[in-house]
User: What shape does this take?
Amino acid sequence: MSMPEFTYKPTPLMLPTSRYDERRADFAVNFISMLKHTTGEWYGKPFRLMPWQEQIIRDIFGIVGEDGYRQFRTAYVEVGKKNGKSELAAAIALYLLFADGEAGAEVYSCAADINQASIVFNTAKAMVEQCGDLARLSKLVPSTKRIIFPHTNSFYRVLSSETKSKQGFNVSGLIFDELFAQQTRELFDT
Assistant: This one.
């Protein structure tokens, strides 16, 4: 099945003082395109973003403010079941870990319980295992649900509302899965 032609148009939420940096957006799209799907009929096939996914990626990573940093530092994405939410979330987490250029990056997957929080992590881990370059550059630690990128002293790990202490984190990226299932705002506000 071929993807429909996609023509990017920046979100109407782009500030007048912001600009679209096509190079940055292309870099994020190209990084994700080198990843592979991890389940179902798409297993092992290159991750080709659907138009709605590419719109999200280009808006988040390509729109920059006057300061040169991303305008959008928080994005709320709501996707129906079986529409590739975990794959997209895992791809974004891996981009933040490996390609965003932040030394000492701390990327987290959060959810109400550890099993739910692990879904995106397990998808990301499977993506790394299918990509020889990323597998060589990283250290997978399944027992603590971590992917470590020693080159920049960065990591990606799982958190849940069950985690006792969530203070002292220097969060550079956060994937919050099933936000609606949170019993309180505690994990979100931390």
